[in-house]
Amino acid sequence: MRFSIEKYLKEKRTAIDSTLNRLLHSPRKYPPIIHQAMRYAVFGKGKRLRPILLIAAAEACGGKASDVLPAACAIEMIHTYSLIHDDLPAIDDDDYRRGKLSCHRKFGEAMAILAGDALLTRAFEVLSQMKASKNGALQAEVISHVARAIGTEGMLGGQVEDIRFLSSPGQAQRKKRVAYIHSHKTGALINVALKVGAILVGASRGELKALDKYGTSFGLAFQITDDILDKKEKREITYPRIYGLKGSREKVKSLVRNAKTELNIFGQKGRLLKELIDYFVQSRI
Ligand code: GRG
Fold first, then answer.
1. Cα 17 to middle of ligand 1, angstroms
2. Residue 130 and residue 122: Cα distance in Å, rounded?
């Protein structure tokens, strides 16, 4: 039977959502408002891209989705925290997210800040309780990679530079700045998702290296595609504003090509990751 990417995504999204439902506290748990705000932000029209990549990386390295589902959900909680905080009036000031009112528009600013904090905290609690890694050293390695990828050397650093650019949008060093912002704000979490999936199922050094290169290309290509397709405010720094639309599309195509080449060491097992970059990036531009 022919492999269907849509069917694969549907299956994985169902598994991810039911694990998230189990890992997040009940909306009735005291104090209910915070658990309701966390669940509201997590359960919307999210693509679940990062947890799906984490699972696909584990599968490419010979593991099973069930071994890495809690880690995949922890990454989705972290991603959701970043979206809640990104939407706040002090940052991007967005009223809508995932097809509905953003968390702060629904629950108020204070509760949205706390819901983001709570999701970040719960994510690390889940990572520290993973059963998949019976090996404590491996677990500590995963937690350390995740913390680094989302801290000031990773996603948060990218967000800081993005905000700084808005207040001093000079022409100087625009290429360097957009590369830094995209690889940190968007790329770091995508990259670490793949890494965690691979580490948890005992990937080899060669597999980890290949996934790192695939992840770096995926992250940049995904963000450039978002820059091309999503309406951005005039003051924002985007890839097409520096390289033009044609240059941006060409860059995406070459990143996709490079990413796929990196997967050759996986043989047939790399096929799914190739399909995922086509589905989430190539087919959209
Ligand atoms: C700590 C105050 C404070 C803020 C943190 C780090 C941060 C805020 C924000 C950066 C995260 C961010 C918004 C990155 C942009 C990346 C991006 C394209 C997000 C959208 O991802 P999708 O399309 O969204 O995968 P869904 O909803 O499908 O999951």
1. 19
2. 12
